[in-house]
Amino acid sequence: MKNNSNDLEKAKKLLNSGDYTCVLCKDDVIFTSKQRGVKPLLDWIDSKTNLQGFSAADKVVGKATAYLYVICGVSKVYSPVISEPAKKVLFENKIAAVFDKSVTAIRNRTNTGFCPMETAVYNIDDPTEALIAVKNTLAVLQK
After folding, report:
1. Domains assigned to the chain
2. CA 50, CA 68: separation in Å to the nearest integer?
3. With 90 as the cut, is the pLDDT of residue 34 above it?
4. Across the strands, what pairs with 96?
5. Of 96, 60, 55, 98, nearest to 74 (Cα)?
6. How confident is the model at residue 4 (pLDDT cuts 50, 70, 90)?
7. Region label for 73, one of left (φ > 0), alpha (ψ between -120 and 50) or beta (otherwise)
8. What are the angstrom distances between the C-alpha of 123 and each of 27, 118, 143?
9. What gap in Å lies between CA 49 and CA 37, rounded to an integer?
């Protein structure tokens, strides 16, 4: 069995080397995505991809993303930018968080307010409820 910290380093290196938005590694298994936001995680959750014990590297981790990582069962998450609520969710679910910068909340893409996903789960403290809120918000945004 390989050291799990190698998985995180590998994921981080892949994230920083290419135009991936999300990379998950465990031993010799690697999943990558170039989709933005929560989409790659929702796809993996919906397809029932086993991500238990994986290490993840993600461009931005807000509270919604953190809850999706809880559902996926990852063991470690690296992100250049993480929100304070996301750190709290990961910590409470015993997922190691490594980051370059911590912010109060994730901003939306136009920097005019908070990310709609961060807002959707703002008052939620349950991963399953967060998943429902994220899917509902995504459905509204895609209309």
Report:
1. 4-141 (3.40.140.30)
2. 13
3. yes
4. 76
5. 55
6. low
7. left
8. 36, 10, 24
9. 18
Model confidence pLDDT, tens digit, residues 53-105 = 999 999 999 999 999 999 999 999 999 999 999 999 999 999 999 999 999 99
3-state secondary structure of 30: strand
How far apart (Å, rounded) are the C-alpha atoms in residues 1 and 105?
37
Predicted TM-score of the model (pTM): 0.94
Give me the DSSP letters along 42-78.
HHHHHTT---TT-EEEESEE-HHHHHHHHHHT-SEEE
Is there a contact between 97 and 82 (Cβ–Cβ < 8 Å)? yes
Per-residue pLDDT, 129: 97
Q: How far is CA 89 from CA 10, 37, 81, 128, 130, in A?
A: 24, 18, 15, 13, 11
